[in-house]
Amino acid sequence: MLRKISLLTLFAAGISTASLAQDIDKGYLTGSFETNTNYYANDGKTNATVPDGHFGSNNYLKLDYYKSKFAIGVQLEAYAPALVGYPNELEKAKLTNYYVSWTDDDFSITAGSFYEQFGSGLLFRAWEDRALGLNNAIMGARFTYNYKDLVSVKAIWGMPRFGMEYSDTQVRGADISFSLSNLLKWQKTSLSLEASALNRTFKEIPVDLEEEGGKSYNNGFSGRINLERSGFSMKAEYVDAGNKFYENPRYGSSEQEENFFLKKRGNAQLLELGYNRNGLGINLTGRRLEWMDNKILYGNGSTSNLINYVPAMCTQYTYMLTTLHPYTSMTSWLSGNHISSGEMGAQLDVYYNFKRGTAIGGKRGMKVHANFSTYYTLDEEKSLKAGQMLFRDFSIDIEKQWSRDFKMLFLYSAQEKSTSYGANKNTMVQNIFVTDMQYKFTPKLSARMELQYLLTHEEEKDWMAALLEINFAPKWSIYGSDMYNHGSTKIHYYNAGVSYAKSRTRVALSYGRFKAGYICSGGVCRTIPAYTGANLSITTSF
């Protein structure tokens, strides 16, 4: 426990030193500090995970100094140890990210750690998401150049971060964007053509793979077109992710399965169509993925071992029961006799804002949002033929401001998900109902209540959940929630907490019981075990 307190004291001292430096230097310094610390309690009801020492603590200190066109920054991370469910490679304390950069009007150059993305990220994305325990920053160099808003170029080289270290894998890439509309001086239309190239070179690959013709490098390419005019938008992208090699789960089962490794070629197609005008928003997205799991290290199954961004393209829910069984994208699946090369599907989002004074909008208007998404396995490689259903969701939510003080949202979601990752036709079906109500008693006192119900015929049967949150603006907030499975397990997953915010600092303390499942951020998920305990969270910035 003393070691954990010392680490927190070190972080706090760093913030104080940085604040003093800001006062005496002509440049300016910004920073942030975040700590997320859990005490894990024994819970015989759920057999919750309890690590040695009962503690877990994730801590981050980030400092950035700016002077004119020059910037320098560092990030210190400390895991003492990492919270339960985070990747095992996150451990101890280390200065993980550091960089120096120069940014002019038309170009920039960065040496050290940096984040970057090509297009939608299907080919390449380096980013940080602390909720997922993911940080695959590149240690190397980046150069960007913009010529008269006609041509924009990015070039990168470096080694991706994996855990607390930078890997031996090297990535080299370039991205170019050409604005045809700026060249032709179109006023009402925006049209750009883009292309990317990426090389990954592994330090070593298995000897058996090399003997079967496997290479220690991989080349990928993508092409994109972006169009916007009069409220209409279109984005199209094609990705060739190059050759991949996978361990053959059917090796030795027949004469045709004599190779230990399977050679596959990754590719993806993405099409987004949108319209937004006069209170109406329509977005249609279609995507096909085939062998699109781009890894930092060969043969490592960690959730943080990725160098591209392939989110689930469906509604990203935040309510408790809507996130019990979230969908995660199928980039590939090899297990036993089941081999799946990817997925194909689409989602349709429709928004409409009924204006004030209309028959449906009434005195204060009304917002309606509907979404339909569905995804299937690829029945055959290199084809558009759909196989087994992976996921389907239809949802509608209606938000209405009934009076100056009372607002309510109603959500319905019908979800169907494969229980075998498309290996067979078995699916689980659940219908979820949510009512979210908010009432403002005074300018400083408000209350929010959630009532949720999940109806299903699956093994766990029905769930119900409720949350009550009371806010004393602008500083205090308290809440209590419970999620109860009254169908089979008869377990209450309760949680209660209080938070205090002042200026740019927020402190929160809570205690609760959490179900094994998933935590998702931006359409990417990781699994978490069941646990019970207390949490202290502190975030501050300056």
Name the average pLDDT. 92
The CATH class of the domain at 312-504 and 511-521, by name, is Mainly Beta
Portion in beta strands: over 45%
Content-based structural category = mainly beta
CATH level-3 fold name of the domain at 312-504 and 511-521: Porin
Helix content: under 10%
Report the oligomer: single chain
Organism: Phocaeicola coprocola DSM 17136
InterPro entries: DUF6029 (IPR046070)
Keywords: Signal
Pfam families: DUF6029
Task: Map the helices and strands.
Elements lengths: L1 H23 L3 E13 L14 E13 L2 E10 L12 E12 L3 E8 L1 E3 L5 E3 L1 E2 L4 E2 L2 E10 L3 E12 L2 E2 L3 E10 H4 L5 E13 L5 H5 L5 E13 L2 E16 L13 E17 L2 E11 L42 E3 L2 E3 L1 E13 L11 E13 L7 E16 L4 E13 L8 E14 L4 E12 L6 E10 L3 E10 L6 E11 L2 E10 L2 E5 L2 E5 L2 E11 L1
Antiparallel strand pairs: 1-2, 1-33, 2-3, 3-4, 4-5, 5-10, 6-7, 8-9, 10-11, 11-12, 11-13, 13-14, 14-15, 15-16, 16-17, 17-18, 18-21, 19-20, 21-22, 22-23, 23-24, 24-25, 25-26, 26-27, 27-28, 28-29, 29-30, 30-33, 31-32
